[in-house]
Amino acid sequence: MTLPDTMRAMVTMGHGDIDQIVLHETWKRPDPAPGEVLVQVGACGLNNTDVNTRSGWYSKTVTEATTGGAYQEVGEEDPSWGGAPIVFPRIQGADVAGKIVAVGEGVDPGRIGERIIVDCWLRDPADPMDKNKTGYFGSERDGGFAEYATMPARNALAVNCSLSDAELATFSCSYSTGEGMLTRANVTAADTVLVPGASGGVGGAVVQLAKRRGARVIAMASEAKHDAVAALGPDVILPRAPENLRAALGDEKITVVADVVGGPYWPKLIDILERGGRYTCSGAIAGPMVEFDLRTFYLRDLTFTGSTVIDPEVMPNLVRYIEAGEIKPALAATYPLEQLREAQTAFIAKNHTGNIVVTP
To answer: Is there a smaller number of Cβ atoms within 10 Å at the N or the C end of the chain?
Structure first.
């Protein structure tokens, strides 16, 4: 196929409010470097990393919940997920589904035409297990809020299924984050997993992935979203933040809390964990500062695990689950690329259930 020299792209010009995302009609189309592929983007999902990086929420100077607004006093040394300044302008967007249309030197030309989703984690090929040598697609290099994107060939994972690009674009970030949390917490069929924020992209993924492992799953979500959450298959659904969580749980014995919410409700989540229970965390959308009683932690023999950089096998495993029909997309809405600002505004409002994507 003949490729254009330019492309449409939504480009983040710097840290700040949503007006930093600007449509460029004739942005230079990238060419794949050696070892890379060029992907024609079919759809790209939204996630909290995009919002937090753009707004500067990762800075230690920020203590409030994720709002998507600009933070006035962002520390220059730590405004991105990895603690290092991000380079602008930047095309964000990690969750790409699309088709390989060109390859760089050293990549099999037979991959042209292959349908792919992205493994978002950029690793040092000589030392892929070193978490200090990782980056994120759409953060440390340009991502998918554009018509085309390049990426290392190893990050373009072939997928063979009947799902649409928009449906496929719901998986990469949310589901790999959820699977990474469950892997870190060693969740098995013997566990009962409590999932705050179960209506969100990651929370809904955790519900499905924990059920796939055979665990009992208790979801927490706003009551208006219970019907949509029920479609994900939890065993029990509770309100978003019951005043008396222990009473709401009844006889349920919670062995794992898988959390991306945090905020002021956090101590109640820790208090209901069984002795020897595990808390795994990959977000803090309700606020990063929490009240922590060390006595609960050590007297109950609890284990806490943070989860950001996933193990290398997580994404290939997810592709297998997708192809086998063991997990399903939760597509909340699709917007055209030029309406990324509107899509991100809806994403931040959290009135949806599942994932929001944009399509070029």
So the answer is: N
Angle at 127 between CA 121 and CA 129, to 5 degrees: 60
Give the largest CA-CA distance in the chain: 65
Q: How many CB atoms lie within 10 A of CB 278?
A: 21
pTM, two decimals, is: 0.93
How far apart, in whole angstroms, are the C-alpha atoms of residue 245 and residue 293?
17
pLDDT at 59: 77
Closest-CA residue to 347 (of 332, 330, 329): 332
Secondary structure in 3-state letters for the chain: CCCCCEEEEEEECCCCCHHHEEEEEEEECCCCCCCEEEEEEEEEECCHHHHHHHHCCCCCCCCCCCCCCCCCCCCCCCCCCCCCCCCCCECCCCEEEEEEEEECCCCCHHHCCCEEEECCEEECCCCCCCHHHEEEECCCECCCCECEEEEEHHHEEECCCCCCHHHHCCCHHHHHHHHHHHHHCCCCCCCEEEECCCCCHHHHHHHHHHHHCCCEEEEECCHHHHHHHHCCCCCEEECCCCCCHHHHHCCCCEEEEEECCCCCCHHHHHHCEEEEEEEEECCCCCCCCCCCCHHHHHHCCCEEEECCCCCCCHHHHHHHHHHCCCCCCCEEEEEEHHHHHHHHHHHHHCCCCCEEEEEC
**Pairing verdict, β 273-281 and 254-259:** parallel
pLDDT given at position 73 = 56
Q: How do residues 81-98 score in pLDDT, each as one tens digit?
A: 666 778 899 999 999 999
Single-letter code of the amino acid located at 123: R
116 and 154 Cβ atoms separated by less than 8 Å: no
What type of residue is 111? R
The distance in angstroms from the start CA to the end CA of the chain is: 18
Residues 221-229 have a mean pLDDT of: 97
Cβ–Cβ < 8 Å for 140, 85: no
Give the separation between CA 272 and CA 266, rounded to whole angstroms.
11
Single-letter residue type at 223: E
Q: Is 277 exposed, middle or buried (0-12, 13-18, 19+ CB in 10 A)?
A: buried
Kindly indicate the confidence band of residue 285, based on its pLDDT and cuts at 50, 70 and 90. Answer: very high
